[in-house]
Amino acid sequence: LSSGFSDTFNIDTKRPKIIAGSKEAYFGYTVQQHDIGGKKWLVVGAPYETNGQQKTGDVYKCPVTSDTHSNCTKLNLGRVTLSNVSERKDNMRLGLSLATNPKDNSFLACSPLWSHECGSSYYTTGMCSRVNSNFRFSKTVAPALQRCQTYMDIIIVLDGSNSIYPWVEVQHFLINILKKFYIGPGQIQVGVVQYGEDVVHEFHLNDYRSVKDVVAAASHIEQRGGTETRTAYGIEFARSEAFQKGGRKGAKRVMIVITDGESHDSPDLEKVIEDSEKDNVTRYAVAVLGYYNRRGINPEAFLNEIKFIASDPDDKHFFNVTDEAALKDIVDALGERIFSLEGTNKNEISFGLEMSQTGFSSHVVEDGILLGAVGAYDWNGAVLKETSSGKVIPLRESYLQEFPEELKNHGAYLGYTVSSVISTKHERIYVAGAPRFNHTGKVIIFSMHNNRNLTIHQALKGEQIGSYYGSEINSLDVNGDGITDVLLVGAPMYFSEGRERGKVYVYTLRENHFVSSGALIDLQSYQNSRFGSCIAAVPDLNQDSYNDLVVGAPLEDEHQGAIYIFFGYKETVLKKYKQRIAAADLAPGLMYFGCSIHGQLDLNEDGLIDLAVGSLGNAVLLWSRSVVQINASIRFEPSKINIFTKDCKRNGKDATCMSAFVCFTAVFLSAHFQTASFALRYNATIDERRYTPRAHLDESGERHTQKGLVLLAGQEHCDRLQFHVLDTADYVKPVTFSVDYELEHPENGPMLDDGWPTSLKVSVPFWNGCNEDEHCVPDLVLDARSDVPSAMEYCRWTLRRAPPDCSAFTLSFDASVFVIESSRRRVAVEAVLENRGENAYSTVLNISFSRNLQFASLIPKDDTDINIDCMTEDKHPNKKVCNVSYPFFRAKAKVAFRLDFEFSKSIFLQSMEIYLIANSDSEEKESTKEDNFAHLNFHLKYEADLLFTRTSSLDYYEIRSNSSLERYDSIGPPFHCTFKLQNLGFFPVEGVTIKLTVPVATRGGNRLLLLTEFMVDQENATCNIWGNTTDYRRTPTEEDLSHIPHLNHSNSDVVSIDCNVKLAPNEEMNLHLRGNLWMKSLKALKFKSLKLTTNAALQRRFGSPFVFREEDPSRQITFEISKPEESQIPIWIILGSTLGGLLLLALLVLALWKLGFFKSGSRRRAAERER
């Protein structure tokens, strides 16, 4: 079972309905959902569809059924023909844009490249077909379509009287001039009347609709003849009858009169010409002078009459030729004069909209249809509006505010897409994109007025050249209050990270102004995706009451395409997409999936909005799934675990039995599913994060179980799970009961709401055993004593001195001190912790100690069952945290324990501090907290463990009175004295001075010693030498020392040497004295025996941390010097003594030999060899 939160969205990707069509026709380029009387359809544009020999494009209607395959039917809108227009429908891209009108279930299908013929030009004005709810063509919408400048009704009035000769030349003229005309629907119509005495219609204006047909008819016109030339009658007949039969309203009326003589009804001409002027008939008159020239008649009167017939000015409307054969010479000139009439009807609208491509985009609003015209006004573009009361075509000047004249040649393509928003004043405001404006793109937000002016409220500009910012626009009313919340602008060619990834900008509405609010976030991949090529605002997909958004990226995944679904929330859209649907996940072979998107209807009658997505050659239907929220809860009976009262047995052991009620309630977000049901499965686990659970389920004896159930919408379902709790060491932290749940069949049926939890963890606490209010009030008492002796105790027990002496010893220190014996390596603390109140939960003993101590152990005493477990924090090595009788220290409980600390080898301090404090999670009264701690803080003195020794090269010297035997004269024998200090203790010794006093002369000024060298073998030792070493008299005086046989520092002149002692453990220090006895003085002084004592004493400096076990730690080196009395021994005594000694030795050897002393060794060696 998965736990945590669901991260899926509710658009089903497993069962898409794919409607196939022609890839060559670009079937699927546009899609629209359609509803007719409850029956659902999909309208699909195929802008390259063929009709006959022409690639007109078309629209298909596809029924939405449960069948695997849908049979789509082409509506054949490409065959719709516009009357009175010479149209060209090949490549007109019908279906390039589609827009549905949900009010009357009609839709609009546009052909932006539809064009029509005007004279020698083809104008691509574009057009749209409105289709009613029954898929029948209703009307053509072509607001940019203007009448051609060649929209003329031309009546040729031929004189067919007998005087015209030869007639064939008149026929040739007629045929040639007709070939100059652009005859066709929406352009020129030609009718011919012939007169003489009578007037007849040769053919009417609407008889023929092509040059070919008219020429063929003209070639068969025969001369009617007649003896009279009734020109006034012929003109009046053409004006009153010929222009009425097949004449078109609004067409320019042109009359060409060809005659060879004065009229017989000339009095009527004035009235006839006046009536023609009133009817705005432009008259061209051609005088054929063949008859006059052949007979030599003056034609002046005839010419004046013809000029009167012709419109003014005569130089443009009057022609004369010498004879009938010369008519061919005026054909070109007459044609040019007629076509110069085109300029007379020119205005800015017709001049600016010829290539407008109206219908490139379309958008249905309340009072009509907005149409984008990207080619209008020299490709700057425009937005046109078709309403039931007419069309609104803004003037070019209306756009100059945002599209200045100097940029008109850049081709902004305004109208590439059109949309609208609803302002905070509930006014409909239009939005249009111009993706090529200044190369970076622009979007304008504007209102359109019936006087052909615009009010541009705001303009938004793109940031990157070539990004096509504004090529796709849509707006979203997120919260459904009728006011637009978000405007989205696509820039599908936005270049990022080396690819055309695309970008969709988000703008939020603030005080009728759109403010930038970042951009949507697509899949972070390096590919040309064209994200933002299509943006569709759709009703609430996930049933959270907020409308949503779908964005297409048709080039993603190597042009397979993908769509992104974004949540609406409150008054904005969440920037991170919630679901990405890739074409590759739906079906193989889909390409450009996401080029069009529409989602407004419930297509499969399940009450949920579904999506229609276009791709190349296919239309894809994606179904929404219902969304459900599962509310889970757990309750326990009883509500707490009572470990003090066991109410059942499990596996032969006393236990506390409990019941857990696991309940689920399903809430469907859509009202359509209030009677639905679905299967659910769940896992229940006890103490899931513990290695060993403290409770087990009765059913299995395990910690977890798995179950399934069926949930009905809105109904609670509960399962009872019985479990039991055995003895455990942890009664403080509650037992956790975890439930993970998921849908039994996640591929079918409802989806769990996005972000909805799929797990639940509830804890059941232990009863703490305290009063009814379950509020435990302990009373912890802590007492501690150390085994470190005070100075008095040290003096009496260790030094074993009398009380008066110990009092003096104690007073010798500047503060109350404790003494660390030289043999001590540890400090012991005896402590007692007692709880005189109620249970104390999570009781903790915090131990902190000074840096010169290291924690060694904590040992409970008296065989107690109370455990004390200590932990060390690496960050705080001088602290210990100990749990006392976890999880709770029982009421009235008491525990004695011993703490041992070792002295640090690396840190030496003159004090020692140990701080103990006991507390618990239970709230103790402030009045009883004073005895919760013990603070041991000792000022220390350390017993120095120093080995103090001395050596000397000279102990005794005898001064010979006989000068012949004396080796020394003035300077006597040398001496080398050494005093050695060794630190045998655990602590470094410092704050101690060794003082040497050397007697060098008598008080009478006679030198005794000559010091030649003093040396200390310890680096960085500092010594000071005091006293006179050289300034003594050269010649000794007589001085009697017989009454002072012992000279030392107290009765002689001395040299003092002070050295600071600083010894690490196991380090030694040697002090060397070298010199000579001063014989000149010693011989002169009067004494029999003289002792010279050098003294070395250890002294504590002020504040020294060390004490000495000896009262007087000093060492002496004494030189004994004797001067014996003179006496003479006879030589014979010396010789006799020598001989007697030799004789005695011989007798002793003989006696030993007799006793066998010298043989016993050889016998022993023989016996050993035998063995």
Automatic annotation (TrEMBL):
<dbReference type="GO" id="GO:0005178">
    <property type="term" value="F:integrin binding"/>
</dbReference>
<keyword id="KW-0106">Calcium</keyword>
<dbReference type="Pfam" id="PF20805">
    <property type="entry name" value="Integrin_A_Ig_2"/>
</dbReference>
<keyword id="KW-0812">Transmembrane</keyword>
<dbReference type="GO" id="GO:0098609">
    <property type="term" value="P:cell-cell adhesion"/>
</dbReference>
<dbReference type="GO" id="GO:0009897">
    <property type="term" value="C:external side of plasma membrane"/>
</dbReference>
<keyword id="KW-0675">Receptor</keyword>
<dbReference type="Pfam" id="PF20806">
    <property type="entry name" value="Integrin_A_Ig_3"/>
</dbReference>
<keyword id="KW-1133">Transmembrane helix</keyword>
<dbReference type="InterPro" id="IPR013649">
    <property type="entry name" value="Integrin_alpha_Ig-like_1"/>
</dbReference>
<dbReference type="GO" id="GO:0046872">
    <property type="term" value="F:metal ion binding"/>
</dbReference>
<dbReference type="GO" id="GO:0033627">
    <property type="term" value="P:cell adhesion mediated by integrin"/>
</dbReference>
<keyword id="KW-0130">Cell adhesion</keyword>
<feature type="transmembrane region" description="Helical">
    <location>
        <begin position="1131"/>
        <end position="1155"/>
    </location>
</feature>
<dbReference type="InterPro" id="IPR036465">
    <property type="entry name" value="vWFA_dom_sf"/>
</dbReference>
<dbReference type="GO" id="GO:0007229">
    <property type="term" value="P:integrin-mediated signaling pathway"/>
</dbReference>
<dbReference type="InterPro" id="IPR002035">
    <property type="entry name" value="VWF_A"/>
</dbReference>
<dbReference type="InterPro" id="IPR048286">
    <property type="entry name" value="Integrin_alpha_Ig-like_3"/>
</dbReference>
<feature type="repeat" description="FG-GAP">
    <location>
        <begin position="579"/>
        <end position="639"/>
    </location>
</feature>
<dbReference type="InterPro" id="IPR013519">
    <property type="entry name" value="Int_alpha_beta-p"/>
</dbReference>
<dbReference type="InterPro" id="IPR048285">
    <property type="entry name" value="Integrin_alpha_Ig-like_2"/>
</dbReference>
<keyword id="KW-0401">Integrin</keyword>
<keyword id="KW-0325">Glycoprotein</keyword>
<keyword id="KW-0479">Metal-binding</keyword>
<feature type="repeat" description="FG-GAP">
    <location>
        <begin position="80"/>
        <end position="140"/>
    </location>
</feature>
<feature type="repeat" description="FG-GAP">
    <location>
        <begin position="455"/>
        <end position="516"/>
    </location>
</feature>
<dbReference type="Pfam" id="PF08441">
    <property type="entry name" value="Integrin_A_Ig_1"/>
</dbReference>
<dbReference type="InterPro" id="IPR032695">
    <property type="entry name" value="Integrin_dom_sf"/>
</dbReference>
<comment type="similarity">
    <text>Belongs to the integrin alpha chain family.</text>
</comment>
<keyword id="KW-0472">Membrane</keyword>
<keyword id="KW-0732">Signal</keyword>
<dbReference type="GO" id="GO:0007160">
    <property type="term" value="P:cell-matrix adhesion"/>
</dbReference>
<dbReference type="InterPro" id="IPR013517">
    <property type="entry name" value="FG-GAP"/>
</dbReference>
<dbReference type="InterPro" id="IPR028994">
    <property type="entry name" value="Integrin_alpha_N"/>
</dbReference>
<dbReference type="GO" id="GO:0008305">
    <property type="term" value="C:integrin complex"/>
</dbReference>
<feature type="repeat" description="FG-GAP">
    <location>
        <begin position="517"/>
        <end position="575"/>
    </location>
</feature>
<dbReference type="InterPro" id="IPR000413">
    <property type="entry name" value="Integrin_alpha"/>
</dbReference>
<feature type="domain" description="VWFA">
    <location>
        <begin position="153"/>
        <end position="334"/>
    </location>
</feature>
<keyword id="KW-0677">Repeat</keyword>
<protein>
    <submittedName>
        <fullName>Integrin alpha-11</fullName>
    </submittedName>
</protein>
<keyword id="KW-1015">Disulfide bond</keyword>
<feature type="repeat" description="FG-GAP">
    <location>
        <begin position="344"/>
        <end position="395"/>
    </location>
</feature>
